[in-house]
Amino acid sequence: MSESTRLPGDTYDAGLSVRKEVLGTEHVKRATVNSTNFTDEFQEMITRYAWGTIWTRDGLPRTTRSAITLTALIAGGYWEELEMHVHAALRNGMTADEIKEVFLQSAIYCSVPAANTAFKIGKDVLAQYEAEAK
User: Fold this and answer.
1) What is the pLDDT of residues 35-51, one digit of tens each?
2) pTM for this structure?
3) Mind listing the domains of the chain with CATH numbers?
4) DSSP string over the chain
């Protein structure tokens, strides 16, 4: 949907803002720049509904939304998305210890093998964050 066809107060604009805050401007820029006629509507749907309708709600703090998202991604085995959302969880203010607790709980409710993969991904992301902080 082009900007000219969006209505004022449209969830797309709010979603784009939150998506950039949570995932980082560079990630969102890559996703939108690499969008094609084949993927344009999908990118718009994600921005409008996931980010503009759910992530903008007041009912839960972003750290809680991140914890829920991490668990859902572990349960589904969506590892690329999990890596992206571990970065997002840190950006949202979750600590390494809180992420570890989510992964430990996921071992019981999602499976030990799934949590094992999550810990590997989390360890890599945390190492990257520590290296960037130096």
Assistant:
1) 999 999 999 999 999 99
2) 0.89
3) 10-57 (no CATH), 60-134 (1.20.1290.10)
4) --GGGPPTT-HHHHHHHHHHHHH-HHHHHHHHHT--TTTHHHHHHIIIIIIIIITT-SSS-HHHHHHHHHHHHHHHT-HHHHHHHHHHHHHTT--HHHHHHHHHHHHHHT-HHHHHHHHHHHHHHHHHHHHHH-
